[in-house]
# Entry
Amino acid sequence: AAAAYDDNGDALLVFGTVSNEVIVYRLSRERWTIEKALEAPSNKTTSFGSAVACTGSDLTTVLVGAPDESAVFVYVPVTNASINSTTWILEAKLDSPESAPEARHKFGAAVAVDGDLAAVGAPGLEAVYVYTRHKSAWRLATTIRSSDYDYDMLLGGSVVGVHEQSFGAAIALS
# Structure
């Protein structure tokens, strides 16, 4: 299960394992209420929400990892003040930058966001991918790899992971 709080502690994201969604809760008058259920954009996204992160004092950006699809979904709220309503939109889908992404790479198994900077862990590749946002466009800025990573080896017709460190399994930005 995954969960994240906003900077003020009055908004919460919770991964809903049964329904493949991430629930956005708001604290109002000492009660938590559901604001929105962010649903997986496709039926094939079975790991949607296994990692979540948010930034800002009012959930200005939400990252939702889907490592089985080698993707991270970026959501932002759009507020209509005249009717006191918030709509959530999918701002971007960050796909694994690897030429042949596979579920075993676990791109999106860990996510972190701080303003216009996002980090996505891919422990199967022993990597963290750092993205920057300009307006609503996200671009890969750099890749950080474990210095101890030993690439998979072909032994007896089978691919074997050798000396994996799980680098990128947990990340944070501040």
